[in-house]
Design goal:
By secondary structure, this protein is mostly helical. The chain has one domain. It has 2 helices and 2 strands. A two-stranded antiparallel ribbon has the order 1-2. A hairpin with a 5-residue loop joins strand 1 and strand 2. Helix 1 packs antiparallel against helix 2. It starts with 16 loop residues before the first strand and ends with a helix.
Length: 108
């Protein structure tokens, strides 16, 4: 199984805004990823991927439990992938909540 390098081409640009004269926010170019997705769409797709892994793991475990010819290694790999994805999602959520809390406590 080849290992692919992480490149800066896949880096995510977070949408940035600046106020104009009327106080309305104007988007700064670069608020979308290279494939045209916004940050919100990227997060939605990522959560959908975690959900897909969870459902796949559930299906594999159910097939294994009902006696379908399944390799135990494949069952364990699917379960661990789903578990790791959920743990990562939880940690990212915790970091975002911590950052939000920190910003809210900032005195202006």
């Amino acid at each position: 199984m080849p290992v692919e390098a992480i490149s800066s081409a896949g880096a995510l640009n977070v949408r940035q805004v600046i106020p104009n004269e009327t106080g309305a926010a104007l988007p700064i170019p670069g608020g979308e990823t290279q494939d045209g997705k916004t940050f919100g769409q990227f997060l939605t797709d990522a959560l959908g991927g975690v959900n897909d892994l969870q459902q796949h793991a559930g299906q594999v475990v159910q097939k294994f439990a009902t006696g379908a010819p399944m390799d135990v290694h494949q069952v364990m790999i699917a379960v661990e992938q789903a578990s790791t994805a959920l743990a990562l999602t939880t940690q990212v959520r915790n970091k975002l909540v911590d950052a939000y809390t920190e910003v809210m406590h900032t005195q202006v």
